[in-house]
Amino acid sequence: MRINMKHVWIVLKKELKDAFRDRRALFMNFILPILTTPLIFLVIIYASKSAFEVKPEKTKICIIGEQYAKQLVDIIKSSQFDIVQSSNPKKDLQDGKIKAVIEIPQNFSDHLLKEKQVNIKILVDESDSKSSNVGSILNEIISNFAKNITKQRLLAKNINPEIIEPIVVIKENVAPPRKMALFLLAILVPMFVVLNASLGGMNAAIDVTAGEKERGTLEPLLTTAASRISLVTGKYISVSIMAIISGVTSLIGLGLTFWLLPLVLGKDATKELGDIAALALPASVYIAMFIVVVLTAIIFSAVEVAIASYARSFKEAQTYLTPITFLVLIPVYFTMYKTPNDLADSYFIIPLINSLAIFKELIYGIINIQHLLLFIVSSTVYLVASIIFASKMFENEKVLFRS
């Protein structure tokens, strides 16, 4: 059965008019990605920052036996930790009222004078990221105090302190601020854009298939001169357009995020995050990103149209399509912390993972022709398969009018 482009155009115009009349669809595809993307992005950054950031002047700790090590306690106090008293330190630590407990033994000073080893306990709650970080800070303070004691002992015996520390390890971060920012973007951007592109046409797919069945407008449409392949093509293109719009508006939302970031978190926070707002990618990368959005959108649109056409009602279609939302999240989390160096050729062939993988490379400004071709060829295969699947479902009377 041949496709009549005139009929396709008529169906497409009709579906797009209906879609743009639907305020909910407009909100979901235009407004929501622009609003939620910056909001979620900023919440994730702020939450991550606040979860691990330790401000000593606001952090409560308890020291048991502080009278036995006044010099050490004075050093800890100089770090501006809020040292509080507690009748039950372990319980307060577990309840989150304090972030760490230091236990200093009664024989602390005596053992130091006799040059014996002495144990100091630092109790933390490893399930609390702040408590864990406070423990690391306190451990470093006490370790430095111990090193100074060792140094004084050796100097008193006319021994060079360097003899016990022949190797000093210096860890240096060679990643420039831009690369640090790209790492953060490579985690978040593919997630937002690909999710919106793959799921953005879902409501439209339900409306043009199961929605029409429920309203009783599908049967009259099938009696027109337009062939079923022309009808499904027009409907499919309209769903694809809505999905593409959703993906593109999420990109716009990300642009808005970069503009808002310094205003909301402050310039200091922006510098810590690698000056994301100052990032600039070449035009060729944005063109490639658009191609990824389009291919992802049109593949998932065909699958969603096929599945929704099997449903008898709007609600039933939502039930059938809900698993897709969860299936889409699996590859998102699977590739989230991968860097371009971790991506094997197979990543650019597997459905959806290929979109996420190519997006990561593009964010880093990498245009790998081999990977791009693998992505385009594999996506084309999935596209053809999904369109055939959708058209077969739409042509099947038992599927369309099942009781």
TrEMBL record:
It comes from Caldicellulosiruptor acetigenus 6A. Keywords: Membrane, Transmembrane, Transmembrane helix. The chain crosses the membrane at residues 26-48, 180-199, 236-264, 276-300, 320-336, 348-367, 373-394. Gene3D superfamilies: abc type-2 transporter like domain (3.40.1710.10). This is Abc-type na+ efflux pump permease component-like protein. It is found in: Membrane. Residues 35-388 form the ABC-2 type transporter transmembrane domain. It is a multi-pass membrane protein. One of its GO terms (cellular component) is membrane.
